[in-house]
Amino acid sequence: MFFYKTTKHIENNENNVIDNKKELLFLVLTKSAKSHNFCVAGIDLNTKKIIRLVSNEKGDAISKYNFIFNGREINCLDVIKVRGYYHPLKIQTENFILNSITDYVWTATSLSIIKNFNLIDNGNILINNLPYSHSDDASLFKGSLMIVVVDNVTIYSTTNIQGQNKTKIDFTHKEMEYRDFRVTDFDYFALSHSVKMNKAIIVISTSETPYELDNNFYKFVAKIYDVSYFFRNNKPNVKNEYSKHHFQKGDIVVSDHFGRGTILSVGDEIATVLFSNGEAKIHIDYITKVS
Hints:
18 strands, 5% helix, 47% strand, globular
């Protein structure tokens, strides 16, 4: 099960008509570092398209002060409602200018929707196996965001010529090796040792304009999801042994994804739980009562 009471809002837009101003039901996939702010990308659950939230028509990143709702910080895998309008650029065709966040719906516990929406390998940013593309290659990009399933993943820390620590990733995709890609996922900053994964889902992003010193378009890995984790937590759609009569306000519960928390309220299938990193609405199939 992916999320609850939101599928009724999802309609397949066969003509891919883009409204100038609208409210989107948006799944956050990335919240990565960009110019001391957040590069936010995800899925418009109505059109089943990948989009990037930006703060203005230039495509600037989202301020951390503008990515909260009712005092709650928005994080990856949150499903939220956002209001704004599309403003595609030449390379970053997916840009959507964020005017406001109007609601927090709940937090997802699976990435199955990516497969269901056929969003894997949805672009051609990996037109070569270099961590950048030349201007001629970038002109062929079909958008600036790409979701990829990769193998043989190694994430590690390096030091650049200015003495700054940078996180990089090596991986294999379709039997081709990719090395030295820059990682902007906060979860992998300041690593004390390398991290290895057999398989991962990554979100790759590229800029609207080339780097001024070499005129190349660099490819950034904005989010890394350990596939083994989500396969382990992608439980079948069955009822939890506990019903709403067994869960009640104040119960201590454990989630594989969020850890330990306290139930604030509970309905037939959805509980609102206070975890260490904030509140989350989560299906009762994904929490266990601490005895």
